[in-house]
Amino acid sequence: MLLIDGCSGGLTPARAALWAGVAAVLLLVLWPVRVTAGPGWLAVRGLLRTRRVRTDALAGAWRVGNVSAALVLKDVYGGRVELAPEILLTNPLVWHLVDAGARRSRERGTLRTGGALLDRIGRLIDAQAGMILRTSGLR
Question: What sections of the protein cross the membrane (predicted)?
Answer without folding.
Answer: 18-44
